Amino acid sequence: MRERRWRPSGPLDVKTTLAPHRRGAGDPAWQATPDGAIWRTSRTPEGPGTLRVGADARRGEVVGQAWGPGAGWMLETLPRLLGADDPVADFALLLEGLPSGGYALVRELASRHGGLRLSATSRVFEALVPAVLEQKVVGREAFRAWRWLLRAYGEPAPGPAPAGMRVFPEPEVWRRVPSWDWHRAGAEAVRARTIVNAALHAAKLEAAAPADADRLLRALPGVGVWTSAEVRQRAHGDADAVSVGDYHLPSLVGWSLTGGRTDDAGMLELLAPYRGHRYRVTRLLELGGRRPPARGPRMPARDYRAF
Question: What InterPro entries does this protein's entry cite (predicted)?
Fold first, then answer.
C-alpha cells in the first residue's frame, strides 16, 4: 500500500466531487464504504490500480491510499481527480459580474455546494465505454450492462478493495468481447460496434490534448455531441461541456431557471450567461435544482437479452 496526503486549497466535498464517476448502484469500479471513504479502480498507464480516498478532518487533508501497479500514478493524479485544476475561482468571478436579478438560484446553489469540484480522471477510454452504454437508454439498463461486462472481463481489484470490485479491461480485451456476450450484457450491436471501434483508437484518445478531445471523439462512428460531452466532463473536468441531447437535462434546466420546460436550444440560451462553466451549472442544478412534475409513462427499460 502506498499513501499520499493532500491539502485542498478550499472546501472539498469528496463524495459529491467523485459521484459522476459512479455508474449506478453496485458499480464494480466505484464504491462508498460506511466509514465515508470512496474506493475507485482504474486502468492507469502503469497498470491496474485501486484507490481509497478518505479524509483527515482534524488536519484538513485528503488521504489517498493505493494498491497495484497503478498505485503511484493514481496518487500522483489524486489532486486532479479531486478538482485541483478546476477553475472554480473563475466561476466565482463570473457570478459576481452577473446582474443581481435572475441568477439567484445558481448563486445559492454555488454557495450551498461550495465543496463541489469538477473531477478529472485523465482516462478517456475509461469514460467513453460507459457513456456509449448509456446512449439512448434508461440509466438502469446501461448500468446493468456496465456491471455485467466489468464482472465478466475486468480483473479483480488490487489490494483490500470491497468485495466484487473490478478493474476496467484493456482496450484489446474490449475488442475481443464476442457478440453473444454483448447480447448477454444487454448491449445491442450498434453500441457494441461503437465501443469495439473506439478501442482501436484508445491510445490516440488518451494521448490527445484536452483541446482536441471533442474533435477526436466525434470523429469516431457512433460518438456524437452528447457522448463527447459526457466523456470530457469526467476525463478532463471540462467545466463547459454541456450534454446536449440528454433526455432529462433540458427540462431540469428550464424548470429550475424559468419554471417551464424547454428543449436543447432553449437550454443553451438559458446557460449562455455561464459560458465557460455551463457543465458546472448543470451539475449544481442536478444537486439542487427543481424538476418538472412527472407526467406520462416513464421511458421503459429494454432488455436486449430477450431479443
Answer: Alkylbase_DNA_Glycosylase/TA, DNA_glycosylase
Residue 14 resides in a domain: yes
93 Cβ partners below 8 Å, 6+ apart? none
Burial degree of 268 (CB within 10 A; 0-12, 13-18, 19+): middle
Computed on alpha carbons and rounded to an integer, the radius of gyration of the chain in Å comes to 19
Q: Please say which residue of 171, 201, 223 terminates a domain.
A: 223
CATH of the domain at 198: 1.10.340.30
**Structural domain of residue 28, as residue ranges?**
2-81
Tens digit of pLDDT for each residue in 282-301?
999 999 988 888 765 555 55
The 10s digit of each residue's pLDDT in 237-290 is 999 999 999 999 999 999 999 999 999 999 999 999 999 999 999 999 999 988
C-alpha span between 202 and 300 (Å, rounded) = 32
pLDDT of residue 302: 58
> Which of 81, 112, 146 lies at the terminal end of a domain, its last residue?
81
